[in-house]
Write a structure and sequence with these properties.
Blueprint lengths: L7 H11 L13 H19 L7 E6 L5 H13 L4 E7 L2 H13 L5 E5 L13 E7 L3 H11 L4 E6 L3 H6 L6 H4 L2 H22 L2 E7 L10 E7 L5 H18 L4 H12 L1
Parallel strand pairs: 1-2, 1-4, 2-3, 4-5
Antiparallel strand pairs: 5-7, 6-7
Helix pairs in contact: 1-3, 2-3, 5-10, 8-9
Bound molecules: S-adenosylmethionine (SAM).
């Protein structure tokens, strides 16, 4: 997939309406990187949608959607270019971005997108999602996106985190203290730890997980995607190995991602 295959006129109109370009259709310089992040993320959504039935509507949930750039472009790609039946549910607790997105959808005449103004953790979805994703959701909002995906039994969960303040702040008295005394390494280890622990939780819940750079580091240092696909429950032996790895990290670094707590909550509700 490459942007050349898009109808540039339509794409430009979308950019203008959603605010990825100015009213004259010129891309805002500071958003050029965002463009590349969106198109590279879309490649992964495309692969996932490609594995799902063509005979029914596919439900995609964008957690911490902001102005919904990724979802608007993806909607155009799937609905118009690929002629797939898709529905987008976009969630953000910032009323301003949700209002702007609703207006944009109205201007573009899109009736397959809905925008929910709420904390991700508090949303009850009306439809079972096929794909739950988040791009640069702040800190624990990534955990909320993953928890939502697990709770709703999504086939795919894809997250690219932003900051990992909570895990970074709570990592205490661990053997890599000499490394993490340096702020830059503390941040990197926090990123690795948070995503690895999330991945282990996903694996323990029957997802196959890959962690990789989905876009070049030159576009954004926050370029790591956790991509999970539901493959079914793992054997008790495999599951206990995964949980052992998880609790080893937990006890060595004295930290627990918010996801753990959120899933406890979900368990309580069951
Ligand atoms: C850095 S922006 C990313 C927006 C968009 N995904 C993008 O890549 O352009 C992070 C967004 O997460 C939203 N957010 C953070 N925590 C949230 C939560 N718990 N529930 C809903 N939205 C949240 C913020 O309001 C903000 O719009």
């Amino acid at each position: 997939m490459d942007t050349m295959k898009f109808d540039e006129t339509v794409l430009r109109k979308i950019y203008k309406v959603i605010g990825l370009s100015n009213p004259d259709g010129e891309t805002y310089k500071e958003r050029e990187r965002k463009h590349r992040q969106i198109f590279d993320f879309l490649r992964h959504l495309e692969k996932a949608v490609g594995t799902l039935s063509k005979h029914r509507e596919i439900v995609l949930v964008d957690c911490a959607c902001g102005k919904g750039y990724l979802s608007f472009i993806s909607n155009y790609y799937f609905s118009v270019m690929q002629k797939r039946k898709v529905k987008f549910i976009c969630i953000d607790y910032n009323a301003h971005v949700i209002e702007a997105s609703r207006k944009a959808a109205e201007i573009l005449g899109l009736n397959n997108m809905s925008f929910i103004c709420a904390d991700i953790a508090k949303v009850n979805l009306e439809f079972r999602p096929d794909i739950v994703y988040s791009l640069h959701a702040c800190d624990t909002a990534t955990d909320m996106a993953i928890a939502k995906g697990i709770a709703e039994d999504a086939t795919y969960i894809m997250t690219v985190s932003c900051c990992q303040h909570t895990v970074r702040k709570t990592m205490k008295k661990h053997p890599l203290g000499a490394v993490t005394q340096h702020g830059v390494y503390r941040e990197r280890l926090g990123d690795m730890l948070a995503d690895t622990m999330r991945a282990l939780i996903l694996e323990s819940r029957g997802y196959k997980v890959r962690i990789f750079e989905y876009v070049s580091m030159t576009e954004t240092p926050k370029n790591v995607m956790v991509r999970a696909v539901k493959t079914g429950t793992s054997s008790p032996r495999k599951r206990s190995e995964i949980l052992k790895r998880y609790s080893d990290l937990e006890s060595v670094f004295n930290t627990t991602p918010k996801l753990d707590e959120l899933l406890e909550t979900i368990k309580d509700r069951e």
